[in-house]
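To illustrate the input format used throughout this study, we show a single complete record. The first block contains the structure-token representation of the backbone; no residue identities are included at this stage. The design step must infer an amino acid for every position from geometry alone.
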């Protein structure tokens, strides 16, 4: 263990950048003998929210958990093969805010991709990753 963080938080959104960050986190977690928290923030766009208006809350929660499980499933084999302890979290909300809150709660280093699945792909650094870097006091590693 180290003196700077107690776990590694890896926000995932299904993007290639997030998958590269997960691969980096596997090696880092092994090197510092530290658990990993995988995070999927369900942040539906307004059109999806309107489409879900008639669904019961339980079904909407199921949908978000299913989406998270699919994304976690794409990276879990790496962590399992490396013997890294992993916790999975699916939350609703603003990705930047939820990433920062969970990193604070877990005293975690954040390892995330440079750009994700958002509509701002043309920017050099994505809006979520830039927002996290500029708003958190936790250590952050941005993976290209």
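Output of the design step:
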């Amino acid at each position: 263990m180290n003196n700077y963080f107690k776990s590694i938080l890896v926000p995932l959104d299904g993007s290639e950048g997030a998958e590269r960050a997960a691969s980096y986190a596997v090696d880092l977690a092994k090197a510092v003998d530290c658990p990993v928290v995988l995070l999927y923030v369900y942040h539906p766009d307004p059109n999806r929210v309107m489409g879900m208006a008639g669904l019961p809350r339980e079904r909407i929660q199921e949908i978000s958990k299913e989406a998270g499980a699919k994304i976690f499933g794409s990276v879990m084999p790496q962590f399992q093969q490396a013997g890294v302890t992993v916790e999975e979290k699916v939350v609703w909300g603003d990705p930047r805010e939820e990433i920062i809150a969970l990193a604070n709660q877990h005293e975690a280093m954040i390892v995330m991709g440079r750009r994700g699945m958002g509509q701002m792909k043309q920017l050099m650094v994505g809006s979520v990753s830039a927002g996290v870097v500029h708003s958190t006091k936790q250590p952050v590693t941005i993976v290209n």
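Structural context for interpreting the output: The longest helix spans residues 57-82. The two ends are 26 Å apart (CA to CA).
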